[in-house]
Amino acid sequence: MNTTTSNLRTRAGAAMIGLVLAGAALQAPAALLGVNPGYPQIQANGAPGGLTYDATTDLFSAVAPGGSARFSAANSPVPVLGGTITMNIVVDGSGALVGGVPGNDLVVTGTIPAAGGFPMSFSGTLITGEVTAFGFLNSGATTDNFDLRFTVTGGALATYYANKDIGVKLFVEQSTFNDFTVNFSGLPKFTIGPIAAPPAIQLLKQISVDGGATWADADNVGDLDVPTVPAPSGAQYRFIVTNTGGVDLVDVVLNDATLGLVNVPLPGGSLAVGESVTIDSGYSGFEPMDVAERCNDAGVFINTADVSGSSSEDGTVVTDENPAVMVCTYTPPSGGGGGQGCTPGYWRQPQHFWAWTAPYTPDTLFGDVFEDAFPGQTLLDVVRIGGGGLNALGRHTVAALLNAAIGDVSYDLTPAEVINAFNDLYPGSNGDYEPWKNQLDTYNNQGCPLNNGTGFVEDTSTLTTETGIGKGKKK
User: Does domain 201-329 have CATH number 2.60.40?
Assistant: First the structure.
């Protein structure tokens, strides 16, 4: 996720000035975007009414014939034959950019001959893009200004836009624009060309559990590339940091609280446009990325790193973050252990309270044993709670704790492993909880050796539903 710093939109005098950055929902000071298209540059003049705004549909549209193209400031313009410029975006009644339309928001077509500095002829779709920012200035007269930023999606001229955006300036004559609460129209004059993309940075955190032979992104619990290893196990991490924007970045630092990395400078400290750096434990300051014992018990282990850097031009700060996940399982000692387990339905029955092993009693508060995910609830309350997500994890965790605590059940986990696994996961999302809940469900359904346990069928009538905790019934 990338973020940028900006200021809130303001108004100056009678002029209505606005800027909205799509997606990031950011607004800037009272000014146009300041788009200044570079080269190769296309210019075209539309007809009266070639620019329209429909206040009912919020559709802002402009169209013009092909016009002319200049390869550089030193070259003379050449005609763009048989083409058109079409632009369609959505702007709400306050002048805020809502976004684009299905398909490309900007399409420029035509034929540019191999003349005027152009090394070859370019024909067909010349450039296309998706809108990301929109600015406007109501002059109070019949000439108004709009400017826009688009990300490049294709076209024969796309090579000239490498690591850049499309900048569009619209000078509108015969304009009836006052605000976006009513329809307006005008005669558009386009200037289109490459502009520097805004600053952006990307972080990819990867994990290896085989000594660095293979690396996995392992972004989300449940992803196929998440490594599953027996506990205890070590892990190695690496960062791949890339400048994905259009401005050089300085003061680039990385953080990973789990690994103890706090504002560690990127080697070299800066990233040029398009530059990518891979960092592992071999770099000074990043030694903690080689973890000898990442897990010493069963559970899901997630840690997230983040990166930040500043634009070399104006100091704008950009950030990104990325997690890496590993799953550790418990392997019973050779020669015995494991293979038995009683269900939550067994442990919630009053006739089986005799099997609850101190210090874990029906009256013991859940929060006295685990992270307090169920405030005020006892172990018995939680093993009786219905529903999925955290409720299901809590239910099976209590059953696992009781199975592990009683010596008469040859269970796959120790009480400490059950406790640590829950505390490592909570707080988290249902996606984080589900894999470990399913593992506990398997352990708890291996067959109960306790009296009245063999062949026991869970009585779901004793499940309760707690408001704010979950609803429904689930094993």
Answer: yes
